[in-house]
Specification:
Elements (H helix, E strand, L loop, with lengths): L1 H15 L1 H15 L1
Helix pairs in contact: 1-2
């Protein structure tokens, strides 16, 4: 499910750093356009 994926991504992002999260979010948003 998308929600589960988002939660997992957020958890990974917290480990790796927010800059990575922002890049992921931007690329995902670009794909959704």
């Amino acid at each position: 499910s998308v929600k589960k994926y988002c939660e997992q991504t957020r958890r990974d992002a917290n480990r790796k750093g927010l800059s990575m999260t922002n890049l992921m979010s931007l690329s995902i948003l670009e794909q959704l356009k």
